[in-house]
From TrEMBL, chain A:
Assigned protein family: Belongs to the thioredoxin family.
Keywords: Disulfide bond, Electron transport, Redox-active center, Transport
Matching SUPFAM superfamilies: Thioredoxin-like
Protein name, per record: Thioredoxin domain-containing protein
Keyword Chaperone: no
Limits of the Thioredoxin domain: 20-142
GO cellular component: mitochondrion
A molecular function (GO) term: protein-disulfide reductase activity
InterPro entries on file: Thioredoxin (IPR005746), Thioredoxin-like_sf (IPR036249), Thioredoxin_CS (IPR017937), Thioredoxin_domain (IPR013766)
GO BP field: cell redox homeostasis
Source taxon at top rank: Eukaryota
From TrEMBL, chain B:
Transport as UniProt keyword: yes
Source organism of the structure: Owenia fusiformis
Gene Ontology MF: a single term: thioredoxin-disulfide reductase (NADPH) activity
Protein name: thioredoxin-disulfide reductase (NADPH)
Family affiliation: Belongs to the class-I pyridine nucleotide-disulfide oxidoreductase family.
Length: 144, 599
């Protein structure tokens, strides 16, 4: 694996859409899985990895046609990676998973929802400053 | 004759009278239809109360109240269990369909919805949202069958996905190219002598905008609590449709009322290779690669607009036309549009029809060979040409096949599949139609929207307002835009006779063209006035930049019956193109010169 590829993984900028299963077999990927950014595949996947997740999850509702989403997405990934697995990031493409987005009352993208134990705790809409995103995450974390 | 005895508000009294009687008939002793309804009720051994409005002195006041309550002024006016049924026909029909006794006995079938709209285009969405605003239970079915090339799209119908929106944006892309040329004359120093256009970038930007619109429509439906079904609807009976989703799962949906708003799709001629290798406007706006050297076949506004913007983007474009341009539009204007396009890089193959399309090379784009023959010639006179892309724009067919119309007996024009309707109501009383599926009605998004909104108001809010289909303004977004309202000159002549008309016209030169050294005498405006009606303007035509923006306001003037005098009494805005309509003085009959002069 090239240096660049490793760097991409460590910075959390990656796409799991095509082959999520490879992460279970590759030891490097498996190690990274603890602070995973993942694309939601379907409603069951959403239930398994978001609603039933023990850790807080940021759900990033995003769309391929949305310019601001392309700015916010990578920044969210970097910030979440900094929490080293204490919080996860789930990306939901609102066109591929329209029912989910509609159910969650999404009107504009990007909308980020903070979920804790299957419950919506908070949300923000639009490109937001890094420190505000960090504050948003802090509020989702269990008291230490 | 005594008035009805009541105290207080007449409306309240009428409402109470309706509520107090299981079967209430507002009637007149002299009315044969009223007699018919009463006979029917008697034959069914149904107890009813009839109020004879001609036997009371304030009968016409009661009728006025009935109009407000039910949207119906005429008698008989029948209410059952407080619900408005209608007149004689509605009562007899309800009986024929076995609904009348059920309604009287309170066993009226409960439908899933008050309104189901088939088709999520501009008209269908407008209608469904308006009905939901009135508190009705509404569902919209939207399902896009892939084009022969496999193109599909999201919610919103033709205009948003494969019509007005992408074409206007791509028209704008072409205009910007032209503006870059002008810019040099205005002092802009461009880095490269000739700017290059990137199709993929344009396509992505346009499609991104469309994606956001699709989503916006979906959100609106949720916010207005309109149920959205991404499924194909087929009538099973008058109150039931079968909805098939993309996985083939079938559900049945029942409704008191239906609106057919399925729109139309491009027609692909039945010649070898057309479906396999050709594309249509369904495919063009999301084509992943630049179409390259393109043959556009057809003379419709779609054909001219597409040929126009493709040429404007710098592509080698040929337009193959069977006979006249823009059938149905003013032919003088159509010819001027053609001339302008021909002078701006579009090659014309006039009086030719395609025979076959063959693929010489695969690719993105590939290479196709088209064989065509003269319209009135033999196949032996045929010609061939090689193109990267062949775009068919020969017309559109209504999407009324395979939606089960014959299962319920909706009448339609067998020539074009379009539905017959009066005030958007088909021959089946609870089945309505709006938009491009309607026979003899303009195929325009705003027309469909207006029809959908007003229909919902009439169905669920007692409104009596109908769509005014006259003097609908429209614009063809050819490189030089063409806006029109009212009659084409030839239609005006056919309707009123040449002698009764005066046509005022002129060329004009947009100020912006002068510094840019663009050609003179291409822009043109004319007003067709009816001499026998105080020179009322019955036709408005403008060819020039921003014709759409110019035309809209004048549509209001024409709705209000503006005369030539009114136009003359209006003071223009200087310097604009639109101001020429306030100073038109040369008549066609005078034969005077209309070449543009300075300001």
């Amino acid at each position: 694996m090239s240096q660049a590829a490793v760097h991409r993984l460590l910075s959390g900028v990656r796409c799991l859409r095509k082959t999520p299963q490879m992460f279970g077999t590759n030891p490097l990927f498996a190690a990274q899985q603890r602070w995973l950014t993942f694309n939601v595949q379907d409603e069951k996947d959403f239930k398994d990895r978001v609603l039933e997740n023990d850790k807080p999850v940021l759900v990033d509702f995003t769309a391929s046609w949305c310019g601001p989403c392309k700015i916010l997405g990578p920044r969210l990934e970097t910030i979440v990676a900094g929490y080293k697995g204490r919080v996860e990031l789930a990306k939901v493409d609102i066109d591929e998973h329209q029912d989910l987005a509609i159910k969650f009352g999404i009107s504009s993208v990007p909308t980020v929802i903070g979920m804790v134990k299957g419950e919506k705790k908070s949300q923000f809409v639009g490109v937001t400053e890094d420190d505000l995103i960090e504050a948003f995450i802090e509020k989702l974390l269990p008291p230490s | 004759m005594p008035p009805v005895a009541f105290s207080g508000d007449l409306k309240e009294w009428v409402q109470n009278t309706i509520n107090c009687h299981k079967v209430m008939v507002f009637s007149k002793t002299t009315c044969p239809f009223c007699a018919k309804v009463k006979e029917l009720l008697q034959s069914l051994k149904v107890e009813y109360y009839a109020l004879e409005l001609d036997q009371i002195s304030n009968g016409s006041d009661v009728q006025q109240q009935l109009l407000e309550l039910s949207g119906q002024r005429t008698v008989p006016n029948v209410f059952i269990n407080g619900k408005h049924l209608g007149g004689c026909d509605a009562t007899i029909q309800a009986n024929t369909e076995g609904r009348l006794l059920k309604m009287i006995n309170g066993e009226e079938e409960e439908y899933d919805y008050d309104l189901v709209v088939i088709g999520g285009g501009s008209g269908g969405l407008a209608c469904s949202k308006a009905a939901a605003d009135l508190g009705k239970r509404v569902a919209v079915l939207d399902f896009v069958k892939p084009s022969p090339q496999g193109t599909t799209w999201g919610l919103g119908g033709t205009c948003v996905n494969v019509g007005c929106i992408p074409k206007k944006l791509m028209h704008q892309a072409a205009l910007l190219g032209h503006s870059l040329e002008d810019a040099k004359n205005y002092g802009w120093q461009l880095q490269e002598e000739t700017a290059k256009h990137n199709w993929e970038k344009m396509k992505d930007s346009v499609q991104d905008h469309i994606g956001s619109l699709n989503w916006g429509y979906r959100v609106q439906l949720r916010d207005k609590t309109v149920q959205y079904l991404n499924a194909y609807g087929t009538f099973v009976d008058q109150h039931k449709i079968k909805a098939t989703n993309k996985r083939g799962k079938v559900t049945e949906v029942t409704s008191a009322n239906f609106v057919i708003a399925t729109g139309g799709r491009p027609r692909i001629p039945d010649i070898p290779g057309a479906k396999e290798f050709g594309i249509s406007s369904d495919d063009l706006f999301s084509l992943p690669y630049c179409p390259g050297k393109t043959l556009v076949i057809g003379a419709s506004y779609v054909a001219l607009e597409c040929a126009g913007f493709l040429a404007g983007l710098g592509l080698d474009v040929t337009l193959m036309v069977r006979s006249i341009l823009l059938r149905g539009f003013d032919q003088q204007m159509a010819e001027k549009i053609g001339d302008y396009m021909e002078n701006h890089g579009v090659k014309f193959l006039r009086q030719y029809v395609p025979l076959k399309v063959e693929r010489l090379q695969e690719g993105t784009p590939g290479l196709l060979k088209v064989t065509a023959k003269p319209t009135s010639g033999a196949e032996s006179d045929s010609i061939t040409g090689e193109y990267n892309t062949v775009l068919f724009a020969v017309g559109r067919d209504a999407c009324t096949e395979n939606i089960g119309l014959d299962n319920i007996g909706v009448r339609y024009n067998t020539k074009n599949g379009k539905l017959f309707a009066t005030n958007e109501q088909t021959n089946i009383s609870n089945v309505y139609a709006i938009g491009d599926v309607l026979d003899e009605k303009p195929e325009l998004t705003p027309v469909a929207i207006q029809a959908g909104k007003l229909l919902a108001e009439r169905l669920f809010n007692g409104s009596t307002k109908q769509v005014d289909y006259t003097n609908v303004a429209t614009t063809v977004f050819t490189p030089l835009e063409y806006g029109c309202i009212g009659l084409a000159e030839e239609d005006a002549i056919a309707q009123f006779g040449q002698d009764n008309l005066e046509v005022y016209h002129t060329n004009f030169q947009p100020l912006e063209y002068t510094v840019a050294h663009r050609e003179e005498n291409v822009c043109y405006g004319k007003l067709i006035c009816l001499k026998t009606d105080n020179q009322r303007v019955i036709g408005f035509h403008v060819l020039g930049p921003n014709a759409g923006e110019i035309t809209q306001g004048y549509a209001l003037a024409m709705k209000l019956g503006a005369t030539k005098d009114d136009f003359d009494n209006t003071i223009g805005i200087h310097p604009t193109c639109s101001e020429v309509f306030t100073t038109l003085s040369v008549t066609k009959s005078s034969g005077g010169d209309v070449k543009a002069a300075g300001c």
